[in-house]
């Protein structure tokens, strides 16, 4: 299996956000002018449900401020051609094609491979989503992989669902390394950073579990240096 990573920059003057509405989740698009002012373009249903103000994680305050407790619940591909959204209330993910004028057009909706998806990252035509799980209903925290075809349709990768460092690790972000060879997952309740190796067929092996040296690791970012990758 070849993981494609062709770079093409889509419209750079668009801003996208997600409502997480518990009746019908939506992507909201804005046009950004040269002064940074935003103009509403439209609302685009994901055909899935968010959680509203309901928290997906028991590790965060039940105040409705950040219900998904994550980074990357709405993700634009590196080439700017498609947009991916989680629907934590219906356990699904949605893919959108980005048109030449920046409008998202719904392409596909698929089950996320677990309960309460809250973060997505994509490298080329390979996508991974993190699922918080639901300990009360015996659903473990995990990550699950999909392939994305030219029509932005999603195909689950057999054998790609993989548990994290603990049953109830509660992921906050799933993130590819810049070369796509590894996936990093920050875990809220275990205070771990789990690293997975990406195999040629799109599955993963691991995790290699690392201490985050802090409480509740949330957002991560990577940069290349002369000594390797800095996190």
Automatic annotation (TrEMBL):
Q: So which domain of life are we looking at? A: Bacteria
Gene3D superfamilies from the UniProt entry: YVTN repeat-like/Quinoprotein amine dehydrogenase
Q: Which InterPro entries does the entry mention?
A: Lactonase_7-beta_prop, WD40/YVTN_repeat-like_dom_sf
What is the protein's name according to its record?
A: Lactonase family protein with 7-bladed beta-propeller
**Species this protein is from:** Neobacillus bataviensis
């Amino acid at each position: 299996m070849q993981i494609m990573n062709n770079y093409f920059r889509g419209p750079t003057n668009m801003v996208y956000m997600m409502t997480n509405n518990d009746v019908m989740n939506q992507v909201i698009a804005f046009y950004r002018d040269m002064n940074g002012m935003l103009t509403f373009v439209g609302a685009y249903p994901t055909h899935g449900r968010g959680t509203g103000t309901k928290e997906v994680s028991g590790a965060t305050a039940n105040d409705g401020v950040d219900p998904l407790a994550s980074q990357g619940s709405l993700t634009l591909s590196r080439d700017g051609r498609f947009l991916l959204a989680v629907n934590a209330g219906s356990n699904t993910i949605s893919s959108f094609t980005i048109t030449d004028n920046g409008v998202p057009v719904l392409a596909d909706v698929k089950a996320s491979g677990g309960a309460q998806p809250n973060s997505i990252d994509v490298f080329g035509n390979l996508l991974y989503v993190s699922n918080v799980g639901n300990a009360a209903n015996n659903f473990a925290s995990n990550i699950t992989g999909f392939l994305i075809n030219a029509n932005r349709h999603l195909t689950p990768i057999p054998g790609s669902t993989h548990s994290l460092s603990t049953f109830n690790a509660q992921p906050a972000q799933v993130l590819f390394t810049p070369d796509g060879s590894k996936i990093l997952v920050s875990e809220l309740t275990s205070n771990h950073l789990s690293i997975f190796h990406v195999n040629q067929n799109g599955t993963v092996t691991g995790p290699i579990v690392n201490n985050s040296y802090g409480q509740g690791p949330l957002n991560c970012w990577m940069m290349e240096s002369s000594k390797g990758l800095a996190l």
